[in-house]
C-alpha cells in the first residue's frame, strides 16, 4: 500500500529506498505535489514568460561538402555563446530515435521491482544504476524524475549487463552518436589547432554513459522541476528529447545580448538531436566554450522522456586547459586535476547551476 506522502520519511522510503520512483508515487493516485517536491519560488519555472531558442538546427551533412567551413563556424559559434545547439542529418537514423523513446516508456512502465534491482545499493553490476532525483539524501526539494544510467565498457559487457529491455537499441544509439560526436570534436578542437588522433579522442571521451530519463505527469507542474539548474559534467552531451518540450537553457552572463540571464526553451524538433557543451569542454577550452546551465520543467498532461549520452574523459585522466589556448590567452583560468576527483565532487552535491566548476576555477 502507498504511504502518506505528507510524511517526509515514508515518502523517501517509498520513492527512493524501495525504488518505486516518482512514477510509483504518481501511479498510486496522488492529487497534489507532496511538500518534498515543492521548489523554492526562485527555482520554479515560469512557463508563460520564457522565449524559445530561435536558432535553426545545424545540418551536419553539410560538413562533408563545400560548406564545411561555414558549418564549422556555426558549430564553434554555438559552443562559444549558448553552449547548446540542435543538429539534423546527424547520421543517427530517425527510426532508431523513435524506437529509443518507445523503449524508454516501456522500461519505466515495468513493475517497480523489475527496475529496483538496479538501485545503486543492490545493482548486480556497477555499470547500471536506477534512481530518482539527483542526490535525494541532500536535496532541499526533490526532482520530479526517475532515471536509469548505463555505462559503456565493451560491447560484450553491455550485452551481458545492461537491462535486456533496452540494451540493443541503446547501444546502437551510442555507436551512431559517437561518430557524430567525433566529427563535432574535430571541429571544436580544430578551431584551436588541436589535431585529433584516436588517442586524443579517447582522452576527451574515454567514458560514455547512456541515460534514460522519465518525467511522470505532475499534478502541479509550476511548483516542481524535472531537473534543477545544472551544467553537465563531461565533454559533450547528446540529447534526444521527445515532442513534449520543457528543456530550458540560461543565456550566459557574458553573452553579447540584452537577454543575459534569461531562460530560453530548446524546442523539440522532429528528428533532431540536442548537443551541449559540458564542464570538461569549458575547462579544456579555458572558458571559450560554454558549459550550458540548463533545467527541465514538468507537465501535467503527459509523461516526458529524454535520452542523453554523456561523453567524458576517463576518470584517471588529468584535465587542464589546453596549452594552445592558454598560450594565446596568456592565463589559465582552471587548475589541473584528476577527473575522478571532479566526478566525486560533482555527484556529491545537489544541482546548483554552474557551481560544479568552482572545483577547478583558479
Ligand atoms: O531531459 C532533458 O531534456 C535534459 C536532461 C538533463 O539535463 C540531464 O539528464 O542532464
Ligand atoms: Fe543535463
From TrEMBL:
PROSITE patterns: FE2OG_OXY. One of its GO terms (molecular function) is metal ion binding. Gene3D superfamilies: B-lactam Antibiotic, Isopenicillin N Synthase, Chain. It comes from Herrania umbratica. SUPFAM superfamilies: Clavaminate synthase-like. GO terms for biological process: coumarin biosynthetic process. The gene is LOC110419056. Pfam families: 2OG-FeII_Oxy, DIOX_N. Coiled coil: none annotated. Its cofactor is L-ascorbate. PANTHER family: FERULOYL COA ORTHO-HYDROXYLASE 2-LIKE, OXIDOREDUCTASE, 2OG-FE II OXYGENASE FAMILY PROTEIN. Keywords: Dioxygenase, Iron, Metal-binding, Oxidoreductase. The keyword Metal-binding applies. Belongs to the iron/ascorbate-dependent oxidoreductase family. Residues 200-313 form the Fe2OG dioxygenase domain. This is Feruloyl CoA ortho-hydroxylase 1-like.
